[in-house]
Every structure is written in structure tokens, then in C-alpha cells.
Amino acid sequence: MRLELTLLVDGEAVTAVLDRPGESLLRTLRERLGRTGAKNACEQGECGSCTVLLDGEAVVSCLVATAQCEGREVRTVAGAVPGEVREAFAACGAVQCGFCTPGLLVSVADLLGRNPDPADAEIREALAGNLCRCTGYEKIIEAVHRAATARTAENTHTGAPGTRPLPPSPSPEKDPTLPHGCDSVMTEGRT
């Protein structure tokens, strides 16, 4: 059985041809459409690495059947995440191996879209479905606060969008919690 359907992925109308109606959105994005931002880690909805926005709501794409997505809007890490969120993750050292990063970024973008100034408890709840084995979560929470501050500053800025700088990065020399070797990679050029 062949099933052909059209969906909007990161603002682009695309057609996917499926061999079976139960194929996951994750598999369709990665293998049929070449959109590899969503990562394939557990395929059981437990890790959050494949999180995307489906009609504006965060979902784990490994548990969504592509056949349910006809005519719907899908935003991957490439189309859902504002620059302030990406910059904050890099500046705060919230990225290590990078495998969980796309799902975390999409989840943070979703959170900040709903709540522009979340408290730590709200951040932890929003990220509860995203597993990260490398960073620990403190740098990720710091990055969410930094992104929220940058987004608020940009929204109140009267000039061109994206021209307001992010708050200064923490100095790696003064921050002993950064893993060895990650300080220059995570903060270089991110002031």
C-alpha cells in the first residue's frame, strides 16, 4: 500500500510517499525528506531527541504516524528555534555531544513561546521529556534564562530585529563547572 501526502515542513510544502501508513514522522523526516535535525535515539518517546513542533505543539516525532500529518505544519530544529535560543545554548556551554540538542532547542523554543520568562521549576517541567547524559541540566537552565532575557530585550528594542546583543557570557576561567576542553569551544566568539 502506497500513501502519498503533503505536509508543510519548516515553511515548505513537501510530499512524502509512504510504503506503510504506520511510518513515524521521525522516519519520514529523516529518511524520505532528508530533514535530519530530529535525532533517532530511542524510538519509544522517552528521550526527546526527536522533538518537533506539530501545528505549534511540541511532540516526539517517533510516536506520531506521518499519515496523521496530512496538511499539517511541522517545524523541526531548523525552522522552530529562534537565533537567541541557539546562541544562548552555545554561549552557556549547554551543548556537549549534541545528540539531544535539537530536541532540547525545540522544547525551549516551545516553552519560551508560551512563557517568555519561565522560572526554574517551569523550565525543568518543560524539559522533563528531554534526556541529556553529557551536560547536566544547570547549563541548559542557564541558557533558557539567557535566551528569555535576549528575546525580551529584542522584543522591546525599537531597532532592527536581532541587532541587540546577548548578555555577556560567563567567563570560562571563572566557571569551574565547564567540562575541561569545552570552555573555548562553547564561548569562543559568543560575547
How would you sum up this structure, described in words?
It is a single chain. By secondary structure, the chain is of the alpha+beta class. It has 2 domains: 76 residues, Ubiquitin-like (UB roll); 107 residues, DNA polymerase, domain 1 (Orthogonal Bundle), CATH 1.10.150. Helices cover 35% and strands 13% of the residues. It is built from 7 helices and 5 strands. A 5-stranded mixed beta sheet has the order 2-1-5-3-4, sandwiched between helices. β3 and β4 form a beta hairpin. α3 crosses α6. The chain is globular. The N and C termini lie far apart (54 Å). The C terminus is likely disordered.
Order of adjacent strands in the largest pleated sheet: 2-1-5-3-4
Largest sheet: 5 strands, mixed
| Average pLDDT | 84
Distance between the termini: 54 Å
Draw up the topology in text.
Layout: E1 3-9, E2 12-18, H1 25-32, E3 51-54, E4 57-60, E5 73-75, H2 77-80, H3 83-92, H4 101-114, H5 120-126, H6 138-156, H7 183-187
Parallel strand pairs: 1-5
Antiparallel strand pairs: 1-2, 3-4, 3-5
Features:
DNA polymerase, domain 1, 2 domains, alpha+beta, five-stranded mixed β-sheet, disordered C terminus, 7 helices, 191 residues, 35% helix, Ubiquitin-like (UB roll), single chain
Summarize the structure.
This protein has 191 residues and is an alpha+beta fold. The chain has seven helices and five strands. Helix 3 (83-92) crosses helix 6 (138-156).
